[in-house]
């Protein structure tokens, strides 16, 4: 492989990783909004019925799995970089929302909600890697 084609390959790979981060995170935003706001008219620890908390939480987790799958498909399941970046974005956003007082649930609930999103994103990555690429 020539020096020029190697450079082109690295640029393409970087572009795919960036696209995977953007598409995965946008999918997470869209799907969690549908799961929490459209299907259940908002999820709130104090105001939502217990069934809404359970099924809304499950729908939110499934949304995170799908967003991880989107990111994994775009990088052919070979790179974990998009999932690392999305995890850092979730951690950063959750921390900001807790510290700013935007989230009004108990601290343990808000932390577990963010952790569930991160686990879901990684579950989507491993599902695609296992079932689509056999590894």
Number of helices: 4
Poorly predicted regions are none
Instruction: Specify Rg, calculated over alpha carbons.
Output: 17 Å
Mean of pLDDT: 93
Number of strands: 0
Reading the helices and strands in chain order gives HHHH
Provide the helix percentage: over 70%
Structural class: mainly alpha
Instruction: Give the percentage of residues in beta strands.
Output: under 5%
Question: Termini, distance in Å?
Answer: 26 Å
Overall shape:
elongated
Can you walk through the features of this model?
There is one protein chain. This protein is mainly α. The chain has one domain (16-131). It has 4 helices and no strands. The protein has helices at residues 3-38, 50-74, 81-99, 107-131. The longest helix has 36 residues, at 3-38.
Helices and strands in order:
Elements: H1 3-38, H2 50-74, H3 81-99, H4 107-131
Structure summary:
The chain is mainly α and 135 residues long. The protein has four helices and no strands.
Task: Write out key terms for the chains shown.
135 residues; mainly alpha
